[in-house]
Write a structure and sequence with these properties.
The chain contains 6 helices and 2 strands. With 133 residues, it is mainly α. The protein starts with a helix and ends with a helix.
Length: 133
């Protein structure tokens, strides 16, 4: 079992991860089936935050994230699930759960900001070169 201080991290992670999973149609009962435990066991994990290491690994696999004990506010993404996901405060599961129209708007906003940043970098670089000459 996890240490007592870790139980709050597990509880918070499970609650949030299951909310995100619900948007994809996954339920705590689905998690229970995946971990080969009863739905009551999953309810116990949520209410008490106590879970075996084996079940924590299975739950992390099912939910696509795992709790971060060094930074409880953030989830640690499984590298195989999200290779190269660069954001620490933005959960990929939340992004992928967005309706297509909102996802498209988010992508456009990100593209615009990246283009602005690239333009700023180019302008700063050419300004430095002109100043040297």
């Amino acid at each position: 079992m996890l240490d007592i201080p870790d139980t709050e991290v597990v509880r918070a992670w499970l609650a949030t991860a299951l909310e995100i999973a619900a948007k994809k149609g996954q339920t705590p009962a689905d998690l229970a089936r995946h971990c080969k435990v009863t739905p009551q066991a999953v309810n116990g994990w949520i209410s008490k935050g106590r879970i075996t290491k084996k079940n924590l690994e299975l739950a992390s696999q099912f939910l696509g994230s795992s709790p971060s004990f060094s930074h409880p506010a953030h989830f640690v993404r499984e590298p195989s699930a999200v290779y190269g996901w660069p954001f620490k405060t933005v959960d990929l599961a939340e992004v992928t759960a967005l309706p297509p129209k909102l996802l498209s708007r988010l992508e456009k906003t990100l593209r615009d900001r990246l283009d602005e940043w690239a333009d700023d970098q180019s302008a700063a670089g050419s300004g430095k070169q002109r100043g040297r000459g």
